[in-house]
Specification:
Layout (H helix, E strand, L loop, with lengths): L4 E8 L6 H9 L16 E8 L3 E8 L3 H7 L4 H5 L4 E7 H6 L1 H21 L4 E7 L9 H16 L4 E5 L6 H13 L3 H14 L4 E6 L5 E6 L10 H18 L7 E4 L4 E6 L4 E7 L5 H15 L1
Parallel strand pairs: 1-3, 1-4, 4-5, 5-6
Antiparallel strand pairs: 2-3, 7-8, 7-11, 9-10, 10-11
Helix pairs in contact: 5-6, 7-9, 8-10
The chain binds guanosine-5'-triphosphate.
The site of guanosine-5'-triphosphate has 23 residues, from helix 1.
GO cellular component, one term: nucleus
Keywords: GTP-binding, Nucleotide-binding
Family: Belongs to the GTR/RAG GTP-binding protein family.
């Protein structure tokens, strides 16, 4: 059992870096929310989000225009930076690597963020998202990533950073946010151990648990690790499922479960606990009913 926990999460970065777009994609259920024409966020907009039914995120989407940023580091400094569990600093990877003014702004704001965190929430964890990576060519990506991470780490000094690449146009956004949310989720290790027992009990090849509202990947276990496997394929599943869910909502309908079977394997997506959905990959398509029955029996361990 996991206690109800509330965490303050700051989403910061220059105006236009993509903060509101990403949180809208991950957390909104509203099919009418588009991200192409986002209006700039005014000041710090607080959103209360429920995750896994027992983790509450108090997400502060901090508008990145200079006038607002200046306030965060002066009159509103303590209000914004006290009791922070996680800072997510979003960098427009294209802008920071090609535009001197953007780089200067990011350097200034990021350094101020770390200084304020050290003062008001010294135990806070910092994630940096090198965002809009779709705008950086494959050829330039290694240099942009290395250069930006080195620069920010130098500014952060001994404050540890965890950095991810992301883009709203592919599964990297889901990968980054899955890691951030599972960092905040107490008891993830317990889920992992239980999933490991489950996979053997039902004879599955792989089992993945997704959070049912966001479809972020919580935990995944494979019976045999395959070093050649595509590491982002479940985040790709997250992206596809979330798009499908939004499409269903647009049609004023919803979906409960899915099955894909051929002669070699079967994949089932079933509601599992009240806040999770399980994806089971199984080698024996003829054992669907048995797997489903065992999964039903296992629910109690995860509730
Ligand atoms: P402020 O509210 O002013 O602080 O800006 P913001 O950081 O919230 O940026 P916002 O989410 O409003 O995004 C600005 C623009 O960037 C929008 O037009 C988005 O569609 C676009 N955008 C967001 N993420 C990505 C991405 O990963 N790739 C690309 N190419 N564009 C993106």
């Amino acid at each position: 059992k996991i206690d109800k926990t509330k965490h303050k999460v700051l989403l910061m970065g220059r105006s236009g870096s993509g903060k509101t777009s990403m949180r809208t994609i991950i957390f909104a259920d509203n099919p009418n929310v588009g991200v192409r024409k986002m209006t700039p966020t005014k000041e710090a907009e607080q959103v209360h989000l429920e995750f896994m039914g027992n983790l509450y995120l108090n997400l502060w989407d901090c508008g990145g225009q200079s006038a607002f940023m200046n306030q965060y580091f002066s009159s509103q400094n303590e209000q914004i930076f006290r009791n922070v569990a996680v800072l997510i600093y979003v960098v427009d990877a294209k802008a920071i690597s090609t535009d001197k003014k953007s780089e200067e702004e990011d350097r200034t704001w990021f350094e101020m963020c770390i200084k304020s965190l050290k003062q008001h929430s010294p135990s806070a964890k910092t994630f940096v998202l090198l965002h809009k990576m779709d705008l950086v060519s494959n050829f330039e990506q290694p240099n942009v990533v290395r250069g930006t991470v080195d620069m920010l780490q130098e500014l952060a000094g001994d404050h540890e950073l965890t950095c991810f690449q992301s883009s709203i146009w592919d599964e990297s956004l889901y990968q980054a946010w899955s890691r951030i949310c599972t960092y905040l989720l107490p008891g993830v290790e317990v889920y992992r151990e239980s999933l490991n027992s489950l996979i053997h009990a039902i004879g599955a090849r792989e089992v993945v648990l997704f959070e049912s509202r966001t479809f972020l990947t919580l935990v995944r276990e494979s019976r045999e690790a395959d070093p050649a496997e595509d590491q982002q394929r479940f985040e790709r599943v997250s992206t596809i499922l979330k798009h499908f869910k939004i499409t269903c909502l647009k049609m004023q309908t919803s979906f409960r479960e899915m099955q894909i079977c051929n002669s070699e394997f079967s994949a089932f997506l079933w509601p599992f606990t009240t806040s999770t959905v399980a994806l089971i990959i199984h080698d024996r398509p003829d054992e669907v009913e048995m797997v489903q029955a065992n999964l039903q029996l296992a629910r109690g361990h995860f509730a």
